[in-house]
Design a protein that fits this description.
2 copies of one chain form a homodimer. Chain A contains 17 helices and 23 strands. In chain A, the strands form 5 sheets. The first copy, chain A, has an 8-stranded mixed sheet with strand order 6-9-10-22-21-20-17-11, with helices on both faces. Chain A folds into 3 domains: about 90 residues, Nucleic acid-binding proteins (OB fold (Dihydrolipoamide Acetyltransferase, E2P), Beta Barrel), CATH 2.40.50; about 270 residues, BirA Bifunctional Protein, domain 2; about 120 residues, Gyrase A, domain 2 (2-Layer Sandwich), CATH 3.30.1360.30. Chain A is of the alpha+beta class. Helices cover about 30% and strands about 25% of the residues of chain A. The mean pLDDT of chain A is about 95. In chain A, a hairpin with a 5-residue loop joins strand 14 and strand 15. Chains A and B meet through helix 3, helix 4, strand 6, strand 7 and strand 8 of A and helix 3, helix 4, strand 6, strand 7 and strand 8 of B. Strand 23 of chain A pairs antiparallel with strand 23 of chain B.
Chain lengths: ~600, ~600
């Protein structure tokens, strides 16, 4: 052991008297009279080193020269500390250093390597290797590793085989944009990086692998929103000879295992909710169930009472916010009105009814609805004195979404989402197809390989757009705390049904054959019924740690323009490389 | 359970009398008088189904219609077989089928789905999903999964953290060609797919992750030789605060664990051999130690004896092949001479001395060396009557390689490499630099981040090419049965030493800064000493199963032109895609 006999989180009172060797980074240095204390840090913890000016003046003076983040290796003796530090695992001991060596010096870091740092986002991205020294970031990466190995151990224990599917595949214009990779050996041709291993995992089911999984990088060339990454990681799974129930139970068990083994949390059975119910009651296909405010429709109650705004719209609905009537001022309600009117939400206005503790009612529509009418609304919500009803009106789909956003804003601002509380939910019975007005065609709500609900298979032959819009898919999402953690479906395994689905999605026969002929061909050689799911692994890490950004769980993330600021990629390549690939740049500004 | 209560490898004599549900593929069907037997197959095994024409004529007639590879689900009762099949785990029982349903039909497969198939390579690649149904191929994929999870469990148990490094990185012209990925959001710029996570794992050491590993895809755009793939998998590892000894012991322990946990084989301690010794004695930097024929130099003994061929060359050396003198005819020796003269080997000729059992000596150089002289050679080799000495002469490096090839050919043709025997070996003390005559420059033997041996650091400042050629690297390879399984090194962690190494490799300061500035920058912020290794995971799978082709251990391999015959990739992409990427094709034939 050239560099250490122990790591910096290891020594305890029982080690007192032992000679040890440690290596690590200088976290902090303090000179107190004749003593110099250094906190030596590695991944495992911090150990206090002591240098005594009286005993070894030279050594102590050299120690005083050590800057932050210097890497040193020391030899010394473990001693009991006079003032113990119970907040630190090694807090009972310190090392009387006999000698040390500087393994590497360090310039002054561009930001402090502490739990709370003074470095901005861009600086920390540029020096990501230093940001990763900070305990919260490093712990995220260690958590991710633990979550991955627990996933693998569990799936292995229930018979899943991890199979690596290829990264250099074929571009398919359906869905998001592909990253493409020019092939030097096949001039003019390109590979694509997979957006998911979807078709390959289905082929593995055709090949009889029975239970497949993979923790795998996927790629999407999208305009990046704040919390998207061009490369992201999925836990990708598929099973043969299963119905929806078996898939849900298998991955509910996996999820429970992950929470139990990494956080020590026992999750109860996951409730299930129809897609339509999720939209009607929560204004979202991924309801956050940590608080129980629900959306109620009010059309029946408020229509034809002389208030034109309510009378002429498709939908009126609201939420009842408990116990805020006395607390909310008119200014607060004005602010909330402005909040729903922001373009990101897009509501025309906000109607409220405040039910004061003294029994009086204050409302923005008092002119049209008397107190009695409004108390009827309160009953409708099951509300009580002290509550406030917030009402939006407009086109149904849009208004439900706005109410869903308003509901979440209430959850956030009133502190209704408790840290450490987890509310998983299966959302089921999604529509199969989505009509897009702009392009005048159907898109697959999940993806083109999703099977319709068994009862709806016959309706696939319909040419009536309304019938087709109402087709249900045998698809499901796993939602935790309002975040979509996983999504999947039972797949089509019959060539003619797959062909029909491509027809509905507007693929010509030639396009379908060119892009997915290999899969439809495989269906002709004994494809078993199969289905699966894919978890967003980055998101799962973040949600399990009550964090909103996936970036903190990725060792080397990219910024919003897809750039790695540390290595400065992407970058120009040489003319020789382009020549070999038969490529020329064009139309660059 | 819609489709099965048990799988096809599960039922035993203890299950007799139980009603069960099975699903799977029709492997084989036989009609014997009034009975029809079907072998039903899934990943787990084969179960025999019985249909009785007397009992249920309709059902039996429908069963007789089932073709090979049809997917069916059946219900029936487990019965004891009258003629048991001890070769099959379910061979004690059969299922009397009560009813069944066809889940999917199958066309006649293009080749037989049996252990030995009639399908050629290309056909099997095109229908890889059917090839993967064959038990030997499927078992390879299952083995790979098991090897991966055992690797992860072991490394996790000794404190390694699996960290995902990015796939979209920066192109560096050093080494093999990169695959590049045009960036739509950064027009004119490209990402590169990693040839290995080398720089990222070093940055993780700078960040204090301490012990990193990853089982990860890597990419090289090479002209593919028979057993190379453009995408391949590494077990990539790095450790901080270690010397060579700790790295070797850590990964020797991993390798032992893998052999033990997947094959039940206990490997002894791995011997170590200098690179120079490997070349001198085995004519290879990856000696196959399964048989102990060694190369001996003969210059001292054969020179100045009047045989001009030996006198004028740099090197004369040979191997002693045991107990073949009586067995080898002149024709055999002529064939062997032709073998070494093939362009792939490139020897000018072959000298032999046969030591017959009757004490006589037959040689191709009897005119120049009398029996006594040749017996002296035999003593030199430690050989005995019945052996044959084979001698090559020429330029030293080339001749050693030729002798190495000849040695392996002897091992193969004489059956000296036993299936199931494993001879691991650490090859150490590689040269740091390789001189390339064509480009008149040094290349890194391992890679530019490899540290020189500590004793040789000072010599890095030399400008004497001979001194530089003799620099030793702190690098090591793990070799098993003549295959390079892993390679690694202690890395440079000092900015100035890294800069000096780039200088020696002919990088301008600007090139070094542009390509690796982020790494050299990181070395200035307290980089710890570190080192690591990368295992070729595909190769490891093949070697552990005594197979020579890695392709059989890859679920969806590419052919020699980098093409996936099943999905037909790479392929043309649309003009719109190229426009968005600011790319134009040029110079296509």
């Amino acid at each position: 052991m050239t560099y250490r006999s122990h790591h910096c989180g290891e020594l305890r009172i029982a080690d007192v008297g032992n000679k040890v060797k440690l290596s690590g980074w200088v976290q902090k240095s303090r000179d107190l009279g004749g003593l110099t204390f250094i906190d030596l840090r590695d991944r495992y913890g911090i150990t206090q080193l002591v240098f005594n000016l009286d005993t070894d003046a030279d050594l102590c003076r050299r120690a005083r020269e050590l800057g932050r983040e210097y890497v040193i290796t020391i030899e010394g003796t473990v001693c009991e500390r006079s003032s113990k530090n119970p907040a630190r695992a090694t807090g009972d001991i310190e090392i009387i250093v006999k000698n040390f060596k500087v393994l590497n010096a360090s310039k002054v870091p561009p930001f402090t390597i502490e739990d709370e740092t003074d470095g901005g986002d861009e600086l920390r991205m540029r020096y990501r290797y230093l940001d990763l020294r900070r305990s919260p970031v490093q712990q995220n990466i260690v958590f991710r590793s633990k979550l991955a190995i627990e996933t693998r151990k569990y799936l292995d224990s229930v018979g899943f085989v991890e199979v690596e599917t290829p990264f250099l595949i074929k571009s398919t214009p359906e869905g998001a944009r592909d990253f493409v990779v020019p092939s030097r050996m096949n001039p003019g041709e390109f590979y694509a990086l997979p957006q998911s291993p979807q078709t390959f995992k289905q082929l593995l089911m055709v090949s009889g692998l029975d239970r497949y999984f993979q923790i795998v990088k996927c790629f999407r060339d999208e305009d990046l929103r704040s919390d998207r990454q061009p490369e992201f990681t999925q836990i990708d799974c598929e099973m043969a000879f299963v119905d929806r129930e078996e898939v849900l139970m298998t991955f509910e068990a996996l999820t429970k295992h992950l929470f139990q083994s990494t956080l020590g949390i026992e999750l109860p059975a996951f409730p299930r909710m129809d897609y339509s119910e999720a939209l009607e009651q929560y204004g979202s296909d991924k309801p956050d169930l940590r608080f129980d405010i629900k959306i109620h429709p009010l059309n029946e109650i408020v229509k034809d009472k002389g208030f034109a705004v309510f009378d002429k719209v498709e939908y009126v609905g609201g939420i009842c916010v408990p116990a805020v009537a006395e607390q909310w001022s008119n200014k607060d309600l004005k602010k909330l009105t402005e909040w729903v009117q922001r373009p990101q939400i897009g509501a025309r206005g906000l109607v409220y009814s405040k039910f004061q503790e003294d029994g009086s009612v204050k409302s923005s529509v008092g002119k049209f609805f008397d107190d009695e009418a409004q108390r009827q609304w309160l009953n409708h919500f099951g509300g009580k004195k002290g509550d406030v009803i917030l009402i939006l009106a407009g086109e149904k789909d849009k208004t439900l979404k706005q109410l869903g956003e308003l509901r979440l804003e209430m959850g956030r601002s009133l502190g209704l989402m408790k840290v450490g509380e987890f509310k998983p939910l299966w959302v089921v019975d999604f529509p199969l197809l989505e009509w897009d007005e702009d392009s005048n065609r159907f898109y697959a709500m999940h993806h083109p390989f999703t099977a319709p609900a068994t009862e709806d298979i016959a309706k696939m032959e319909s040419t009536d757009r309304t019938v087709l819009k109402n087709l249900r898919a045998n698809a499901y999402d796993l939602v935790i705390n309002g975040a979509e953690i996983g999504g999947g479906s039972i797949r089509i395994h019959d060539r003619s049904l797959q062909q029909r689905n491509f027809d509905l999605l507007g693929f010509s026969r030639e396009e379908a054959e060119e892009q997915f002929g290999f899969l439809m061909g495989a269906f002709e050689y004994g494809a078993p019924p199969h289905g699966g799911i894919a978890f967003g692994f980055d998101r799962l890490c973040a949600v399990m740690n009550n964090q909103s950004s996936i970036r903190d769980f990725i060792a080397f993330p990219k910024n919003n323009t897809g750039r790695d600021l540390m290595i400065d990629a992407p970058a120009r390549v040489s003319e020789e490389q382009l020549d070999e690939l038969h490529l020329e740049l064009k139309n660059l500004k």
